[in-house]
Design goal:
Layout (H helix, E strand, L loop, with lengths): L2 H13 L2 H7 L4 H15 L4 E2 L6 E2 L1 H33 L1 E4 L2 H6 L1 H7 L6 E3 L8 H10 L4 E7 L12 E15 L19 E6 L4 H12 L6 E7 L2 H9 L5 E4 H10 L3 E2 L7 E10 L5 H9 L5 E2 L4
């Protein structure tokens, strides 16, 4: 049985005329009559008294009409609710970002732009590496990607002509380590060739790793580091650094509390600091109009490409 058969029956009960009911339903009269007949066969009884003029309903037809009206009304209400849900879902924007941005930058940024009800972090992306965010945009896993990005020109090894970006913030990655008893750094930069510093490193495919390598090459003094661990999550790097296992470059926002309490101290002065932009990326042709509307709300013209 189809819902349209119930709608046919309601219209026929209103018009009491097969031809006029067929016109109202935009079908031919033979098709309409056949659908009413199929409905009667499905219900196992005669619903229409065809011997009267105008047509009338049988007692079973009167009973069935009430059911038809209830069912079609519930279907109409449900259809409208589902359409509203689909529209609301389409207006929601998913954003992929590293865990440190999700926990220590994104909440304030969403509040600043009053986007809490529209933009939602895609938590499966918190462990992605640089290229993964753009693959996620291409696959439609997320609508936006928020990433750390080098301020200097650094070749990250992938093309970004298909995307647009806005610079939405800045972060400084600071070389930190656990303190000695007197408060001095346990692993002070630059280290020596004979005694290199244990290094808790970001993953080699991470933007931060590539940016840090380029930055250290510009510092006049050579840093002597030996990698003890490679990690995607800045929070995991911080946990190992807190235990005294080595030096790590950490986002200032992420390490602010531990620096204030003295649990972490600088391993070197400001020349070792790595300043990064925070970029918001979208596909050049976004899947949802809500993404374009958001871009306009942010109040800046989009910049193209991936390298500055």
């Amino acid at each position: 049985m189809e819902i349209r058969w119930l709608e046919d029956f309601i219209v026929l009960a209103q018009t009491r005329h097969f031809s006029r009911a067929a016109d109202a339903q935009n079908v031919s009269q033979p098709t309409f009559s056949r659908r009413i007949k199929l409905l009667e066969e499905e219900m196992g009884t005669t619903l229409i008294n065809r011997q009267t003029l105008p047509l009338s309903l049988t007692p079973a037809g009167d009973e069935f009409l009430q059911l038809c009206e209830q069912i079609t009304e519930r279907v109409r209400i449900t259809r409208e609710r589902l359409q509203d849900m689909a529209q609301q879902q389409a207006s929601k924007i998913s954003l992929g970002a590293p865990q440190s941005l999700v926990s220590h930058f994104l909440p304030e940024w969403l509040d600043q732009h009053q986007l809490r009800e529209q933009v939602f972090p895609y938590l499966r992306a918190t462990g992605w590496l640089a290229a993964d965010y753009f693959h996620g945009l291409d696959r439609g896993e997320c609508d936006l990607a928020m990433c750390y990005w080098p301020q200097a020109r650094v070749d990250l090894g992938f093309e970004l002509d298909s995307y647009q970006y806005l610079v939405v913030g800045e972060e400084c990655f600071i070389p930190l380590c656990a303190p000695q008893a007197d408060g001095s750094p346990l692993h002070p930069l630059p280290g020596t060739r004979r005694n290199p510093l244990p290094f808790i490193s970001p993953h080699p495919r991470a933007v931060i790793a590539t940016s840090l390598t380029a930055h250290l090459a510009q510092v006049p003094v050579q840093a002597h580091l030996v990698t003890m661990n490679e990690n995607i999550q800045a929070a995991n790097i911080k946990a190992l650094v807190l235990q005294g296992y080595g030096i790590g470059w950490l986002p200032q926002r992420l390490a602010a509390a531990e620096m204030a309490s003295g649990q972490l101290v600088r391993a070197g002065d400001e020349r070792w600091d790595l300043p990064l932009h925070i970029r918001l990326y979208r596909p050049r042709e976004p899947r949802h109009a809500s993404v374009s509307e958001l871009w306009s709300r942010l109040g800046k013209p989009p910049e193209s490409g991936g390298l500055t």
